[in-house]
Amino acid sequence: MSPAGTARAAGDAADGVVVLGGGAAGLCLAHRLTEGPALPTTVTVVEAPDGPLRPSERTWCYWEAGTGDFEDAVTASWTRLRVRGADGTTVESDPAPLRYRMIRSARFEQLVHARLAARPGARLVRATAHEVREAPYGAEVRCTTGDGKPLTLCGRHVFDSRPVRTVPAHRTLLLQHFRGWFVRTAAPRFDPGVADLMDFRVPQPRHGLAFGYVLPLAPDRALVEYTEFSRAPLTTPAYERALRHYTAEVLRLGPLTVDSAEQGVIPMTDARFPRRTGPAVFRIGAAGGATRPATGYTFAAVQRQSRAVAAALRHGRPDVPPPHGRRQLAMDAVLLRALDTGRVDGPRFFTDLFRRVPMERLLRFLDGGSTPWEDFGIGLRTPVGPMLRTAAELPFLARRDTGRSEESPR
């Protein structure tokens, strides 16, 4: 994998593919395009140089059966999952053959960078991409390198994974926002074999819902997060207060040390994200709608999307197929709307769903792998009246660019 200095500039022959962004979506796609049988073309990945534009380390989680392509980057995995209701009710299950996995972005980047370095058609460019323009041969990307020099890259196809600045027109927009601590306790407090997906034994906000999230890494180490689904994020001090309460009063962890922290915001919306912005320019990852609207999970959909894009290019039809099916998106739109209007009680809804539906089936549903009959059965295990009322209302609501949900009576 060649450094930035060897990248083709404007006027040279165009690269086959330019991928903007070196996160999960960009690197997954570059990996798929260069694995055997690789495309007979070059693939250039543009990553932000070290500095304020380069994101801090992130955690990505997903479930998968068997051994995946990125198993060497997995930090931890769990065979049993648990959901705790607001009243302390516990639902615990083994979703075999699925296993819940955690990947840290730094380890993932190291793995994929090493694989790309062994493939002669792959290049890594450390630069900030400013503008993408159409060109007779495809598109050109205008960048600035880490040392301040201008650089123009030329490609027959450009796949852009950079975050979008605004959410497209929508009827509902909730934010999944969170702060997590990587903690070390003075005594063993965790069961490394069980991950807590949702723990609703935390104070609930006036609008939306809140839960704890615990991924044990050892008997005395874990990632502990406080998460909300609501319309606006909190301040960092507010997250810190919530985490102190959760670790001390709910989990009763006793003395602990916070080794590091992470914080983020994920839009959960029924907006339609365009996957093509020009004849040769495509959007991938969260920017291309890969985030599952009702859950915020993205990593598994990014992998599916990357495989589909690579297959399309190999057949000479550059395209970004939709990462989620229409049926799944329609059901997610109803759920988001019902949560946002308060027609369903969030903690009770999710606790009852995990209690009434086998966990393996529910996880396949959340990943878009369930059958229509299974989807129908899952729908019957939700509050049918409020969900039907919400489904009947949705077609009459306008999509807005307001940055918040379309108002409606409960």
TrEMBL record:
A Pfam family hit: Lycopene_cycl
InterPro entries per the UniProt record, alphabetical: FAD/NAD-bd_sf
Domain of life: Bacteria
Descriptive protein name: Lycopene cyclase
